[in-house]
Amino acid sequence: MLTVEGLEKSFGSGSNKLHVLKGVDMNIKQGEMVALMGPSGSGKSTLLNIIGGLLAGDGGSITLAKRTYGLKGPSNVVDVRRELIGWIFQDFHLLDNLTALDNVAMALELTGIPSTEAEEAARTALTKVGLADRMNFVPDQLSGGQQQRVAIARAIAGNRPVLLADEPTGNLDIASGKEVMALFKELCHDEENPISILMVTHDPDLASKADRMLLLNDGKTEASDIRSAWGLDEDSESDEGEEE
Ligand SMILES: Nc1ncnc2c1ncn2[C@@H]1O[C@H](COP(=O)(O)OP(=O)(O)OP(=O)(O)O)[C@@H](O)[C@H]1O
Ligand SMILES: [Mg+2]
């Protein structure tokens, strides 16, 4: 579904040059929920921005559905942003004066979908995220977790196969964060229309809910489990020993 190969990105030049991504390789299958972790400044948002077609890489490639990109500037990957990738942000990015329904419908209308069709798709998406009874509320009348679910409805409404989420639970309390994770999992494991989610989180507990974890470290991604990500190796736990 989504393949990243040898992706490189630097910022600045000369002695100020910062080599952030040094050949990132990764692959996400349809229906997979992958958590991306790594220290602050390791390049997680940079990686998501390049995959999402908001930033051009310096080397390597990205293949998504039948599209190959990665080095093209944002103006050359409009179709990727419109059709293939949905975004979820830490601070929701909802319009304050629009109802949940209009927030979702408007995003669809911006991609050229006629209003009645957009509204229909928005209702379906809001129902899917459990907000059927909140469609006519404006963001201020919704809890943080509900607002994030509106943003998720907006991201899935266009039937995009991949969702990128940069610290989606960063502004939520623990219970709402867990609900968002559960919803992500439902969306990925949906039998009719499974999507793929790549999600940045600093919370090891939430990361462990994903199907798989990746650690971005020194400019490259490596497979990770929660213990190695947190510097706990085998002999640091008490019930070690027996091999299975
Ligand atoms: N537009 C830019 N110009 C110059 N440097 C940048 C730019 N964007 C990011 N960087 C630098 O690249 C590095 C990676 O940044 P990035 O935002 O991808 O990190 P991150 O892993 O998302 O960190 P955090 O966990 O704090 O969100 C940082 O050192 C950052 O300062
Ligand atoms: Mg970041």
Short structural summary:
By secondary structure, the chain is α/β, with parallel strands linked by helices.
Give an overview of the whole structure:
There is one protein chain. By secondary structure, the chain is α/β, with parallel strands linked by helices. It has a single domain (2-230), classed as P-loop containing nucleotide triphosphate hydrolases (Rossmann fold, 3-Layer(aba) Sandwich), CATH 3.40.50.300. The chain contains eight helices and ten strands. It has helices at 44-51, 78-84, 100-110, 115-128, 144-156, 174-188, 204-207, 226-229, and strands at 2-11, 18-28, 33-37, 59-64, 67-69, 85-89, 162-166, 196-200, 212-217, 220-224. The chain has a six-stranded mixed sheet, sandwiched between helices. β9 (212-217) and β10 form a beta hairpin. The protein is globular. The protein starts with a strand and ends in a 15-residue tail after the last helix. Residues 234-244 have low confidence and may be disordered. The structure holds adenosine-5'-triphosphate and magnesium ion.
